[in-house]
């Protein structure tokens, strides 16, 4: 393998067909953000939109702004925009409340009143998704059960008691992509529904919910969709399931005619039936800005750049960091790897802190992972080079720590370490 | 009764000890908003706060802003601020998702796994609250039932099957205040819990949740709290109930240690256990601004001015509008009347539209109500005078319509009507 230079990464940036997107974000120049997979960056347009919504629409029109400025339609219109990013035809995606609340609704709906009682999931699924499933069983369907198996054992665990297979498309730690179409087909053959969490894939990994036969999905708006802190999440219910789909949190904005104030609940005929109460409008318009910007980019180019960024990071880590006991935990095969890279090191927590002090914002995941997200719309190839260089220096400048040693929380020996 | 003049109302405004608050809002000068009970006005500080949060905190600190700027604590800190407004000691109120989702959680928790199976409520309760209760019974507790009776029959309907009495403190149409303390006492004597919706009272009607022995409450943030469109709502669980209180939507931010990513859910020891997912931060900081501004005002003065504003409206309506078949539907006794006034007229829908065209934003509630909210922090006494004057002109200029006639949706006869 040739020894690479920074200039090579600079050249990649100059040739990057998505390079122009970086200027569409409001970013400080002196830091490298490797956590856009936790919270995307602010689109430059977001603050302007908020100025309009607060300083004009809300101010001038007060409550009537909900109609006059289409606010009441936003859960559906932003939902359709998200749908465009995840391969869903219009009318199947709607923005709701937090991802966990949305998941609760869809999981309850998927279990319905049927006779099958097992929710099959990955034991390594995002913990909040597991908590939500446990809550559904504890409080809503005490006759049901959660079965947690390793991701690789999901297909073998399908049996005739499985009502729904609940999975994250991309693993929040390793970035491993699960084969959505294959799992959908096998689940359907076993008579089960599928419910996918797209939080770590939407906006960075290609998705074809309709074509892949996905039944249900949720996802969050604040990662690669750049929707802002705590942006509301979205729900997808395949059109073929929508007419019979019921969710338990039946509030007025999911009613067929919310402002008729009818005494009885009638679900809206369309995807609006998944919603409940007033959407948090300021967060929702920020999501709209983030999704609109993300949707401008050619998804093929986004995936190409994402694979290239994470591939270069994997490659440089192997070349320059392996000797410091840094392991790449993410899949090496590009087709199996999502938009981030997990590096394992016994001193991951300290290294993440020290990287932050040097201006590289990555994330620590206990006990030994440094998680680095690379957002194709604002990260550059030189970010990868500079990050590895910084990490190499931190590892080389401090005391050399053999694998596993130092993970006990004891101070590093020798006094050469930072902090 | 003396015939009043506009100058008298101007004098009331000059003497108003809360008069200075109006300048703290961003309001257009050419309109009168009588719908602050639907959506409060924007505090002048809200846009500045959003500028800081988006253009500095989010931009500069990305995901670490959740810790660095106390964002993760905001559901509790804003909750405590709301607590100060509703008579709740710290640690019992937390901001959650929409009011309807919050109500779902508390109602499920109130029903718990107990043997009592009746949810007792007012048949005139806000429809979304009724829908939520129906959803709980349909999807979560099919052995339970909702019993709807008239508000005046609630106490008589208490029996030993009632698990929870679910009521709105102030009626969304008539503004009638229900006697919270008395109902709490009677419910407790009957072995039931109480769950109050404070949406139409918090910020305008005195509340003493702790002193009155309230068990559970929810409320919305976008009415008299001026938290912005779709501001998240809040939940109150009395401290004595909190340790044993369970709600069904168990997401990571309600976990005792969310970022430990433990495989099993453990509810937070404090009020945070009521929360679920990431709060919609931009909407949440706007709520913080609204609540902080509202909390600056002396609640005694707020109630005094509110009673005076609605009292003057009731008085002027009787004096100048009764001859046009306008009836005051809200209680005449100040102690029983919340922060808005409902006027009944057969052509309420047309009149509301025409008032809006003249710059008076009130709200129509089918079939015959004009609902006028008066927010003591930004409405003026002259607003009351001017509104009644405008309505009188609209009624006098159009064809005279006897009571009940014209309510069929037929065009008004005579051709003199507007639109």
Could you characterize the architecture of this molecule?
Two copies of one chain form a homodimer. Chain A is an alpha/beta fold. Chain A folds into two domains: 6-30 and 298-397, Alpha-Beta Complex (Aspartate Aminotransferase, domain 1), CATH 3.90.1150; 47-296, 3-Layer(aba) Sandwich (Aspartate Aminotransferase, domain 2). Chain A contains twelve helices and 13 strands. In chain A, strands 2-8-7-6-5-3-4 form a seven-stranded mixed beta sheet, with helices on both faces. Chain A is globular and about 70 Å long. Chains A and B meet through α2, α5, α6 and α9 of A and α2, α5, α6 and α9 of B.
Give structural attributes.
12 helices; alpha/beta; seven-stranded mixed β-sheet; 419 residues; Aspartate Aminotransferase, domain 1; homodimer
Secondary structure elements and their pairing?
Two copies of one chain form a homodimer.
Chain A: H1 6-14, E1 32-33, H2 44-61, H3 65-68, H4 74-86, E2 93-95, H5 99-111, E3 118-122, H6 127-140, E4 145-149, H7 154-157, E5 162-168, H8 180-189, E6 193-197, E7 216-219, E8 234-237, H9 281-296, H10 299-321, E9 327-328, E10 340-344, H11 348-357, E11 360-361, E12 363-365, E13 369-373, H12 381-397
Parallel strand pairs in A: 1-11, 3-4, 3-5, 5-6, 6-7
Antiparallel strand pairs in A: 2-8, 7-8, 9-10, 10-13, 12-13
Helix pairs in contact in A: 1-12, 2-9, 4-9, 5-6, 10-12
Summarize the structure.
The structure is a homodimer of 419-residue chains. The first copy, chain A, is α/β, with parallel strands linked by helices and 419 residues long. Chain A contains 12 helices and 13 strands.
């Amino acid at each position: 393998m040739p020894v690479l230079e920074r200039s090579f990464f600079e050249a990649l940036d100059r040739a990057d067909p998505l390079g122009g997107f970086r200027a569409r974000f409001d970013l400080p120049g002196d830091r490298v953000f490797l956590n856009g997979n936790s919270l995307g960056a602010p689109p430059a347009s977001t603050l302007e939109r908020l100025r309009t919504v607060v300083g004009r629409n809300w101010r001038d029109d007060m409550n009537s702004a909900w109609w006059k400025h289409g606010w009441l339609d936003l859960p559906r219109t932003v939902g359709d925009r998200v749908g465009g990013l995840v391969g869903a035809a219009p009318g199947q995606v709607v923005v709701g409340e937090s991802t966990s609340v949305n998941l609760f609704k869809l999981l309850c709906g998927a279990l319905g009143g049927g006779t099958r009682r097992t929710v099959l999931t990955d034991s390594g699924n995002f913990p909040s998704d597991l908590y939500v499933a446990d809550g559904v069983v504890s409080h809503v369907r005490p006759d049901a059960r959660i079965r947690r198996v390793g991701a690789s054992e999901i297909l073998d665990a399908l049996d005739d008691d499985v009502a729904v297979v609940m999975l994250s498309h991309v693993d929040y730690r390793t970035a491993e992509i699960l084969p959505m179409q294959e799992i959908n087909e096998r689940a359907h053959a076993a008579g089960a529904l599928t419910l996918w969490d797209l939080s770590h894939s939407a906006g960075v990994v290609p998705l074809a919910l309709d074509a892949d036969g996905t039944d249900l999905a949720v996802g969050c708006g604040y990662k690669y969709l750049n929707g802002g802190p705590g942006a509301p999440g979205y729900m997808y219910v395949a059109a073929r399931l929508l007419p019979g789909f019921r969710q338990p949190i039946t509030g007025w904005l999911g009613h067929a005619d919310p402002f008729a104030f009818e005494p009885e609940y009638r679900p809206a005929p369309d995807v609006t039936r998944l919603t409940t109460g007033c959407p948090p409008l300021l967060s929702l318009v920020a999501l709209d800005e983030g999704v609109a910007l993300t949707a401008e980019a050619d998804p093929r180019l986004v995936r190409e750049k994402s694979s290239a960024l994470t591939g270069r990071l994997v490659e440089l880590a192997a070349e320059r960091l392996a000797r410091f006991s840094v392991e790449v935990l993410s899949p090496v095969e590009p087709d199996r790897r999502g938009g981030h890279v997990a590096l394992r090191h016994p001193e991951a927590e300290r290294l993440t802190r020290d990287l932050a002090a040097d201006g590289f914002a990555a994330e620590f995941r206990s006990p030994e992972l440094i998680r680095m997200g690379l957002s194709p719309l604002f990260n550059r190839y030189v970010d990868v080079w500079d990050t590895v260089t910084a990490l190499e220096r931190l590892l080389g400048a401090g005391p050399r720590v053999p694998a596993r040693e130092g993970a006990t929380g004891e101070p590093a020996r020798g006094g050469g370490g930072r902090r």
